[in-house]
Automatic annotation (TrEMBL):
TPR repeats: 167-200
Organism whose genome encodes this protein: Vibrio hepatarius
GO MF terms held by the record: lyase activity
GO CC annotations, alphabetized: cell envelope; plasma membrane
Transmembrane segments: 6-24, 89-110
Record's keyword terms, sorted: Cytochrome c-type biogenesis, Lyase, Membrane, Repeat, TPR repeat, Transmembrane, Transmembrane helix
Highest taxon of source: Bacteria
Protein name, as recorded: Cytochrome C heme lyase
Transmembrane found in the keyword field: yes
Compartments reported by the entry: Cell envelope
Domain Cytochrome c-type biogenesis protein H TPR: 118-275
Residue ranges constituting the Cytochrome c-type biogenesis protein H Ig-like domain according to the UniProt record: 300-402
Length: 405
């Protein structure tokens, strides 16, 4: 704002200079001197004419005519001087009122028609950016009014214009656009944040969330890859599994949706108010699969390793569910890349070994987890493993890999 006023003062001063220059540089017209010269020339010409007329005998009283001519010349001098003195105007008498008019008109017209009030409000909104950002990021951020959201958007755009490398600002602008269902702005803002901080989990999640709303299959595939990286890096956030579950449900991959929602249930526990909502989502997915509500069950397994265990990143992770008595024959099993540990996996009826005996038929169970280093399930020599205690179906299962065959 200070820069604006400085620029306006410079422009006004320049305008005043343009007014002053013609006043002080105007050519001085000395009318008195010009009239004297003219009168002298007229006097001399008339004297010459009288002389010629006298020589020709046309004039008898030449001397009287010369006296009259001199008298008329003298009579013209005082009147001419008075007239010249009466018309004299000081340059300052013209300059000062002109400068005052320029200044009053310039700032008066700006105050009236120059959006002065809007500029002031813009400056106030920009200064209020930290407070608005803090309010948005707080748990009660959803309470922001429409006016506050517009103010925050304006302030962010202003800041990002001057600081285009602010990844946090782009992320915040993208979140506002998501809240307003402005998909194009959300994707564009989140992409700028992602280009600046491609490994930041919050930025990755925000960009994936924006891409999920796109109608472009390529962008949706990119969102799935980003979410897969978050899960692989063990970025434990309910929103990651929520996006994966929503995407799976939209693609009619109902077993996958059920698994993700089940993981969310295990993460929040039955005491959380969202638990029942997730249960309804699971039941809805089961209905879509043609299953009877209440028969679909899954087992969520939290897997970790002891400090003395060395894990080959190229090994496989074999998770098997057994009856509570520890029977060697698994009821359900699944094979995963080791990835990063600790991690959580979910098994359901889709992982059952025998169609006639589903995982959901168990009342109690135990889980074994093994790191298969050679790729051969039949060989166990040297493999690390762990197993859980017997638990009831629906309870969370924890397995620590700390033993070696």
């Amino acid at each position: 704002m200070t820069l604006f006023w400085i620029a306006s003062v410079v422009l006004v001063v320049f305008s005043c200079i343009l007014i002053a220059l013609p006043i002080y540089r105007q050519k001085v017209n000395n009318d008195e001197a010009l009239r004297d010269e003219l009168n002298k020339a007229f006097y001399k010409d008339r004297l010459s004419e009288l002389q010629e007329e006298a020589e020709e005998g046309l004039v008898e009283d030449q001397q009287d005519l010369i006296e009259d001519l001199k008298q008329s010349l003298l009579d013209d001098i005082p009147a001419q001087k008075d007239n010249a003195n009466g018309s004299s105007i000081s340059p300052m008498a013209v300059l000062i009122p002109s400068v005052i008019v320029v200044i009053v008109l310039s700032y008066g017209m700006y105050m009236k028609f120059g959006a002065h009030q809007e500029v002031q409000e813009w400056q106030q909104v920009t200064a209020n950016l930290p407070a608005l950002s803090k309010k948005l990021m707080a748990p009660e951020g959803a309470a922001l009014s429409d006016d506050e959201m517009r103010d925050l958007t304006l302030a962010l755009r202003t800041r990002l214009h001057y600081q285009p490398d602010d990844s946090t600002g782009w992320l915040l602008l993208g979140r506002i656009a998501l809240a307003n269902r402005d998909v194009d702005t959300a994707i564009g803002s989140m992409k700028k944040a992602y280009d600046l901080e491609p490994k930041d989990p919050d930025v990755m999640l925000g960009f994936a969330q924006a891409l999920m709303l796109s109608q472009d299959d390529v962008e949706q595939d990119q969102a799935r890859r980003i979410l897969g990286e978050l899960v692989k890096d063990d970025y434990v956030d309910l929103r990651v599994f929520s996006l994966l579950a929503f995407d799976a449900f939209e693609r009619k991959d109902f077993p996958a949706a059920i698994r993700y929602w089940s993981v969310m249930q295990q993460m929040i526990g039955p005491q959380d108010s969202r638990y029942e909502m997730l249960s309804r989502s699971i039941e809805n997915a089961q209905k879509q699969m043609g299953q009877q509500v209440g028969t679909g069950k899954s087992v969520s397994v939290a897997i970790s390793v002891a400090d003395n265990v060395s894990v080959d990143p190229n090994a496989a992770l074999i998770v098997s569910v057994h009856t509570a008595d520890g029977s060697p024959m698994p009821v359900a099993a699944a094979r995963y890349p080791v990835g990063s540990l600790p991690r959580t996996v979910v098994l359901d009826d889709g992982n059952s070994m025998i169609a006639e005996r589903k995982l959901s038929s168990l009342d109690t169970l135990m889980v074994r987890v093994r790191i298969d280093s050679d790729g051969n399930v039949a060989t166990k020599q040297g493999d690390w493993f762990g197993e859980s205690e017997a638990v009831k179906m629906g309870e969370s299962v924890t397995v620590v890999i700390d033993k070696q065959y």
